[in-house]
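Reviewers asked in the last cycle whether our approach scales beyond single polypeptides. To address this, we selected a multi-component target totalling 1023 residues and predicted its structure end to end. The input consisted of the following lines:
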Amino acid sequence: MNNGIYIFLDPFHRKDSGVSTYTILSAKILEDNLINTLIIKLKHNETIESFRLRALLEITKIKQTILCIEAPESLASTSLLPSDYPIHIRLHCSRSLGAFVQGEEYNPKEVEREQKEILRAKYVSSPSWAAYFVSLSLFKFYSIPLCYPNPAPPYQKRKIEPRKHDLIFVGRLHKLKGTGYLNKLIEGLPNISFGVVAPISKEWGNAKHNNVTYYDGINLEKKSIYELADIVIVPSIFETSSMVILEALSYGCKVITWEHLGASEYTNEKNLIKIQPENVKNFTNAINFACKAPNPISVDVINHINANFLEGIKKLINGKSITYPLLIKPNTEIELYLRNLVINSGKKMNKQTNSPLVRKTKKFFNNPKAFFKDSVGIKLLTNKKTNTKGPELSLSARVSETDKEQLNSLEKMVLPTSSLVITEQNEKRKLYCSIHNSGRIEFPAPPGKPKGYVTSFLYSKEEDQNVVDDILTGMANFIDFSYINKDRLLVGDFEVSSEESTLSIINRIDFKNKTNFSMINFIFLLNAPTSLCEALRSIGTEQRVILIQTNDNIDVSLQSIDALITNQCIKENTSAARRIIHLESLLNIPQAVRRIIQENGVKSPDMLLALNPEVEIFNKEDFINFDYKNYDGILKINKSENKRFTTMLDFYSNFSTEIVGIAMKESAYMRYKSLCEDIEHGASTQKLIEMCLTDGMIFDVKEI
Amino acid sequence: MSKKYKIAHISQTPLVAAPSKIAYAQRLAGHSSVAIALKDYPSTLQGMFVEDFLIENEFTKPLIEKAIYSADIIHIHNDIPPEWAKRLLETNQRAKYVYQVHSPLREGPLYVPRHQSIDLPFVLKFVVGQFQPRIHVDHIVVPNIFLDIPSIEPRKEGEKLRVMFSPTHRRPGRWNNKHTDELDSAVNALVALGKIEIVMPENPVSPKILMSARRTCHVSIDEIATGGFHQVSIEGLAAGNISINKADYFSKRVFSNFSSGIMPPFLYADGSTISSVLNRLADNVDETVKRQYESFEYFKTHLTPIKMAGIFDEAYESI
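The resulting structure, written as structure tokens, was:
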């Protein structure tokens, strides 16, 4: 018995939510064991923000000792609670993780918020090893969570009687729940009667098979559901635990599922038949076999699971030692399968979005003009018109059957003649923009912003075209790095006098074109004058301007660029360079460009790195308590009197002498890599601080 | 006693009255100082900030000519057109020309420091001492001046927390983006729970009316998005409000340059803490009152117009 209260937060509070069912069952078991509980659940029409606030308000009113405040990581419902509360995060599989597992996009902000809760929680637990292994793909953990099972509903005695179906599937008709496998099983077992118990959805209309009957799961009692058949199949792609498995067992059903799902770790009894992941043939055989065998009584299985759940809670809040494992840890093969599950899904996602069919279909609907303009047929037509010296090939000899159809329909369309006339130069390099020495400067909106970064390469009109060709060809040769290949790189040229002022260039760009330009993430300028670099860097706050200098006559202002790639000796003091890459050969320009993009890419997780880590200024607490959302780094300074200063340069000069330690997020470190490396080799911190603050970085300054 | 100057402040627009407030404070300190704006703001802001400016018309033209001609110091704010630079030089080549920047770099409307493109022989460059100095690193840091008489309305037992707060829209820019989703939802939730009362006029009102309303409040919320702070925070101090913002160490450290090294008593909040901060204040009258007095005393002790004018004096005297 414990004097105190165990609080659950339920940010879902839905009848069909696994977390809500878990919460109710857990509270019941704890109450039965004389532990007071309170469930704070989401109200109807309440937003998650209001729920977080209400949770804080209700908890602050509690006078009893709080044993634990348990919540799922999903939706970060504990985020407003001060860290001195005993927060317990249980890994029920967040929505983001669910999306990630299915190869869908997830919300990085949500992940960041959930990550913060995981890292600051006093307790972290997991309903299975599987949940932990898969969570590792999105989250960091300071230590391995305590793994103990989710509780099962109380055992219900089962009558032996004829059933409506041989087996049932219970759950949403969703990819994550294994609908792909379900369809294969239905098709592979035409003589087996399937009951599908799911919320009403449009998928019901797809019931083509005679061996399937659909039931509205929302309006059926649990008892009625599990009396439909003796066997329940759970073919989900992934489950941290699976409430359906626990319910099925408690109603005396036999369950067939994958070996890698969380609940498979709960028992080795025959009530739960575990199949090697993705082996549909074995799954089919197991169903055939199970249909012929009687159901074992599952009361001991349920009691065992619930006893282990309670032991887990006691260990958590009392630190009670346990000499036996509360779960069956998956073997190495399953562990690897789980760890790769998300990676494979990510690859599938990329494959799906990158497939030519998907891309072309999207392009057809989003931008039909560009679709036809870029199609194989029109390119061949264009070649035919412009390349008069080339061999006259028949179109039909050069296009596939699919393209022929496209071409036939294309020939029927009336396209403006101008769109067919593409000069050889433009065909060779489709110029995104051209900056002249007078008149308005225009940047078209990047064509259908692709996922990831938008990169632009601008070169002087006077530049040796062979050099430009070599650089562009080199950049296009990275098979594994598409941001700078021909399809994605926005190539442009410029002719700007070095006499023209920055302000004059800025004044030639109107608001719309500034907005278009600010959609570009990286702008590489080959031998551009300082004024152009400065102007392009000034018209937005986020884009990175990188100067490639191969010409000694080009002046460089390191303040005006984010990075410099050069094969020249730098006249300006390089201590102001945020990032500088010295080239041994011009052939290395493409590699340097790639490196800059990779260094400045999004870092996830964006770890805090201490400069000069051998000097132990930062301790574990600094890293745990660091506010990753609001700061880019930590500065530790000696406490001293705040003296008057006249300019910030004056201030930085004194301030840098007070700094005893700097830690920066990896993203910030990489942005100022050259400056950081200088410091690590003993240089003053003054320039780094100046550049960081100029660029708007925010530091958590701690006086010691 | 320091030297007394004749000073002419010149700006294209009223710049929310910042130049005229400097001129007023300088007159309080014994200087002869006048503010000249080339034009007023258009539309809704028209007339709101120009009461202490000279804007050129038939009547004011000779006054402006005289002010320029006799000035010892001509203090240019942000930018002026080339024809005005020419006019100033033709009228007065004896004066010392000083430039002051108010707007941040890489944000509209002033993108790059313009002092180099204004054809005047500037001998000093000033920058407003909030977040801007970290961008204009070689400019002398000077304060925005506040002419308000400090006052306080301490919260009473049983009185609901009165909060002055103005929702903002997203704008592009590092320092211009003042919007935080969490702030809006926290305020809405606390109002719905009956824990706080929001004070904000629905339509634009004059700065004086806004200040009168602020004086009846206990809390002023500035933005909690950027790490900087704005006029709202200082006005909050003057009105004996707790000024809530997300100002970082450097923003406050720069401001402490005007207050003998004492950091301003802002209350820090970010998106994840704003609701708990407001909730705590709503529940705790003693803390509210204590912090209200800290704001009031800070303003009263350090931010009086004459003290602020003294900072400009020091800079002028270095010429």
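The longest strand of chain A covers residues 66-72. We regard this as preliminary and will revisit it once experimental data from Aim 1 are available.
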